[in-house]
Design goal:
Blueprint: E1 4-13, E2 21-31, E3 36-40, H1 47-54, E4 62-67, E5 70-71, H2 77-87, E6 88-91, H3 103-113, H4 118-131, H5 147-159, E7 165-169, H6 177-194, E8 197-201, H7 205-209, E9 213-218, E10 221-224
Parallel strand pairs: 3-8, 3-9, 6-7, 7-8
Antiparallel strand pairs: 1-2, 1-4, 4-5, 9-10
Bound molecules: adenosine-5'-diphosphate (2 copies).
Length: 225
């Protein structure tokens, strides 16, 4: 089964104004295990809406979202939330780390919430930090880290509970170009090592070209590039 199979998604935001915005107009995408797909879209095209629906944070008006072959649109909200926590990792343009906790703790906490023991969670957090080159920053709080380091920690947090699907919305969009390239390398290595299915939205066509395939969002649908 594909890890993610979204088909015929439509979504309209009811703004209360006469002309409603139909953001998705039949968007479809299939992502196989281990495949990294670049999602290229100008801002306002509906990429966040698409990623939120694919990641079970929002529901479409029509269409289906299947994860590992199971139709999520038929599940109760409660069940869908449980599947999301166990299956999907998110990365945003801004790291959203908890400021009062260290880098390590930011990666440990979601594991504890998911039922892991403290020792296992710490070992896993350290291993992840090591793989993205910031193990020496484990005991620092986010404010003491560079932008690039903060994003690396956010990648580790997204993968803390071993999701099968990673959704990233401009994961290096907040960094200067040099830092962005290096941090992006770290992300690609991490994703490849883990064998995750990933959808990574980016405006950067050079970064997009390094993924397995590219889809462009235009007019509320997705087309292969
Ligand atoms: P992108 O991530 O590509 O910039 P979004 O999915 O955030 O695009 O938004 C697509 C369109 O939908 C935009 O025109 C945006 O203003 C509109 N939109 C997004 N969220 C809402 C909302 N909650 N209510 C009304 N309109 C929204
Ligand atoms: P990266 O490429 O990971 O973003 P930088 O080249 O921006 O790293 O930063 C180099 C070093 O400077 C990093 O090891 C980081 O710890 C340190 N540093 C950067 N910004 C800050 C900051 N605001 N506070 C403390 N240290 C910082």
């Amino acid at each position: 089964n594909p890890t993610l199979d979204i088909a015929g998604l439509t979504k309209t935001y009811n703004t209360g104004l006469p002309n409603e915005v139909q953001v998705l107009q039949g968007a479809s995408l299939r992502v196989q295990p281990g495949e990294i797909v670049a999602l290229v879209a100008p801002s306002g095209a509906g990429k966040s809406t698409l990623l939120h629906i694919a990641g079970l944070l929002d529901t479409p008006d029509t269409g289906t979202v299947a994860i590992a072959g199971e139709d999520m649109t038929r599940l109760s909200d409660r069940r869908r939330t449980a599947v999301r926590r166990a299956t999907v990792g998110f990365i945003y343009q801004f790291h959203h780390l908890l400021p009062e906790f260290t880098a390590l703790e930011n990666i440990v906490l979601p594991q504890l919430a998911n039922g892991a023991g403290a020792q296992v969670a710490e070992a896993r957090a350290m291993a992840l930090l090591d793989r993205v080159g910031v193990a020496d920053r484990a005991s620092h709080r986010p404010a003491a880290l560079s932008g690039g380091e903060q994003q690396r920690v956010a990648f580790c947090r997204a993968l803390a509970n071993e999701p099968s699907l990673l959704l990233a919305d401009e994961p290096t969009g907040n960094l200067d170009p040099d830092t962005s390239d290096r941090v992006f390398d770290a992300l690609m290595t991490l994703v490849r090592d883990t064998g995750l299915a990933a959808v990574i939205a980016t405006h950067n066509l050079e970064l997009a070209a390094r993924m397995d395939r590219q889809v462009r969002m235009t007019g509320g649908v997705l087309e292969s590039l």
